[in-house]
C-alpha cells in the first residue's frame, strides 16, 4: 500500500523484522504466513496457517501469564502507596501538629493548646503528591498489559444532569467559603461522594448493560459464522445459508440482523453480500466479527465454497481468541477482586480509624477540634481520589477498558466507600472519647 516494497512478501518480511522481542509469536506467525505461499495444496496451506494461528494464541497466553506473574510486587507497592503511607502519615499527624504531652504539665497548661506545625505541607502531600504518584504507578502497570485496548467513549449530559452537577459544586463552594466546612466535614464529604457519582452511575447504567449484552451477542454471531460456513461448504449459496440461520434461531441478535439484511436486499434490489457489508458496520460488536462477516460476504461473490471454508476458519480463530480472553480474565480475577475490596471496605475502615486518632486530643480545646475536622475532610477527599484511581486500575486491567465504565464503577463504589469511612470514623471517635 505504501509502495515502499515491490511485493507483499517483502512487506511482510519488513513488518516481521520491525517487531520487538515482546511480539516474538507474531513474528513467527508472519514468517509462517509467508511460508504458506510456497505450499502447492490447500491442505498444506491450511496446515501452515493453522500453525501460525496457534503460535499467535500461544504467544498472547504466554505474555499474559508473564504479566500476571509480575503483578505481585507492583500491586503491593500500589497498596503501600495508596493506603499504608497515608495511614502512617495520619498516625503521626497529631504528633506533627500538636505539642507533646509532658509528664510534668498540669491539665491547665493543656487548655488552649495550639498547633506548632502548619498542616499545609501534609495536606498537599495527601491530596496532590500521593494521588499523583499512585496514579502514575498504576498507569505504568497498565502500560505493560499485553491486551490493553482503550475503547472510545462519550458521555452525553442533559440539562437536568448539568443542573444537578452545578448545584452540587455551588453548594460545596458556599460551604467552603462560609467556613461551615470546618464545622461539618461529614456533610461536605457526603455531598462530594454521593450525588455526582450516583448521577454518573444512573446515567451510564444503560451503556454498561449494552456493553454486557453486546458481549453475549458476539457469541451468537460466531455460532452463525460456523453454521453459514458449513452450509456453503455443502453447496448452498450465501443467501440460503443466511435464511437457514434465521429458521434455526429464534429471538437472537443475529436473526434480527439477517432479517433486516434480507428485507433491505429485496426492497432495494441490492446484492445481499453487499448489504451485509454495509449493515454489519453499524452493529455494536467486536471489529473482529465485523471484519469476518465482511470478508466472508465479499468472498461469497466469487467462490461460495471457498467462502464457507473461510467462514469456518475465521469462526474458529475468533473462538480461540475469546477462550484466551476468558482464561486471561480468570488469571486476573484474584488481583482485581483484592483491589475492589480494598477500595470499598479495607481502605475506608483503615483510614477512618486512623484519622479518628485525632479525637484523643479533641477534648483539649477548640483548636484541636478545628484541626480534627480538617483532618477528617482531607482524609475523605483523599479517599475519593484513591477510589477513583483504584477503579481506573481495575477497569483497565480487567473490564471494558473505557472511561464510561470507569465512571460507572466509580459511581457505584464511591457512595458505599464514603459511608463506610464516615461510619468507621464516627464509631472510633465515640469509642476514644468515651474510654480516653
Outline the structure in words.
The chain is mainly α. The longest helix is centred in the C-terminal third of the chain and has 52 residues, at 304-355. The protein is elongated. The termini are far apart. It is 78% helix and 0% strand. Among the domains are: 8-67, no CATH class; 69-155 and 324-435, no CATH class. α9 (185-193) runs parallel beside α16 and α10 packs across α11 (238-248). The chain has helices at 8-18, 24-36, 42-69, 72-91, 93-97, 120-143, 159-178, 180-183, 185-193, 195-233, 238-248, 253-268, 272-279, 287-300, 304-355, 366-397, 403-435.
Summarize the structure.
Among the domains are: 8-67, no CATH class; 69-155 and 324-435, no CATH class. It is 78% helix and 0% strand.
Q: List unreliable stretches of 5+ residues.
A: 99-117
Structural class: mainly alpha
Strand content: under 5%
Number of DSSP helical runs? 17
Say how many strands there are. 0
Q: Biggest β-sheet, characterized?
A: none
Helix share bin: over 70%
| Order of helix and strand elements from N to C terminus | HHHHHHHHHHHHHHHHH
Principal-axis shape: elongated
Average of per-residue pLDDT values:
76
The rounded Rg comes to 30 Å
Calculate the terminal CA-CA distance, rounded to whole Å: 78 Å
Amino acid at each position: 500500500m505504501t509502495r515502499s516494497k515491490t511485493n507483499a512478501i517483502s512487506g511482510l518480511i519488513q513488518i516481521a523484522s520491525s517487531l520487538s522481542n515482546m511480539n516474538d509469536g507474531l513474528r513467527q506467525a508472519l514468517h509462517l504466513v509467508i511460508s504458506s505461499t510456497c505450499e502447492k495444496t490447500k491442505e498444506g496451506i491450511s496446515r501452515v496457517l493453522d500453525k501460525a494461528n496457534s503460535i499467535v494464541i500461544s504467544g498472547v497466553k504466554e505474555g499474559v501469564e508473564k504479566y500476571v506473574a509480575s503483578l505481585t510486587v507492583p500491586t503491593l507497592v500500589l497498596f503501600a502507596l495508596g493506603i499504608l503511607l497515608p495511614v502512617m502519615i495520619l498516625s503521626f499527624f497529631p504528633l506533627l501538629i500538636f505539642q507533646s504531652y509532658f509528664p510534668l504539665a498540669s491539665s491547665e497548661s493543656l487548655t488552649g493548646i495550639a498547633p506548632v506545625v502548619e498542616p499545609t505541607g501534609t495536606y498537599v502531600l495527601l491530596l496532590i503528591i500521593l494521588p499523583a504518584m499512585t496514579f502514575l504507578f498504576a498507569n505504568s502497570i497498565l502500560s505493560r498489559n499485553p491486551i490493553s485496548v482503550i475503547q472510545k467513549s462519550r458521555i452525553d449530559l442533559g440539562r437536568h444532569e448539568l443542573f444537578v452537577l452545578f448545584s452540587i459544586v455551588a453548594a460545596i463552594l458556599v460551604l467552603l467559603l462560609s467556613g461551615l466546612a470546618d464545622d461539618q466535614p461529614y456533610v461536605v464529604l457526603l455531598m462530594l461522594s454521593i450525588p455526582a457519582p450516583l448521577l454518573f452511575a444512573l446515567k451510564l447504567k444503560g451503556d454498561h448493560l449494552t456493553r454486557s449484552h453486546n458481549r453475549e451477542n458476539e457469541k451468537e454471531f460466531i455460532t452463525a459464522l460456523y453454521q453459514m460456513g458449513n452450509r456453503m461448504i455443502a453447496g448452498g449459496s450465501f443467501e440460503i445459508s443466511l435464511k437457514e440461520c434465521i429458521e434455526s434461531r429464534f429471538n437472537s441478535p443475529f436473526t434480527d440482523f439477517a432479517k433486516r439484511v434480507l428485507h433491505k436486499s429485496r426492497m432495494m434490489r441490492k446484492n445481499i453480500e453487499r448489504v451485509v457489508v454495509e449493515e454489519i458496520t453499524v452493529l455494536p460488536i467486536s471489529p473482529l466479527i465485523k471484519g469476518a462477516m465482511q470478508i466472508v460476504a465479499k468472498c461469497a461473490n466469487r467462490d461460495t465454497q471457498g467462502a464457507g471454508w473461510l467462514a469456518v476458519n475465521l469462526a474458529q480463530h475468533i473462538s480461540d481468541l475469546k477462550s484466551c480472553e476468558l482464561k486471561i480474565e480468570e488469571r486476573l480475577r484474584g488481583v482485581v477482586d483484592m483491589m475492589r475490596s480494598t477500595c470499598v471496605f479495607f481502605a475506608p475502615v483503615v483510614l477512618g480509624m486512623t484519622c479518628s486518632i485525632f479525637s484523643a486530643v479533641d477534648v483539649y480545646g477548640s483548636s484541636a477540634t478545628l484541626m480534627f475536622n480538617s483532618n477528617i475532610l482531607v482524609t475523605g477527599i483523599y479517599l475519593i481520589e484513591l477510589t477513583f484511581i483504584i477503579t481506573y486500575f481495575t477497569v483497565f486491567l480487567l473490564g471494558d477498558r473505557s472511561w464510561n465504565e470507569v465512571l460507572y464503577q466509580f459511581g457505584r463504589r464511591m457512595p458505599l466507600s464514603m459511608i463506610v469511612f464516615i461510619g468507621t470514623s464516627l464509631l472510633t471517635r465515640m469509642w476514644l472519647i468515651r474510654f480516653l
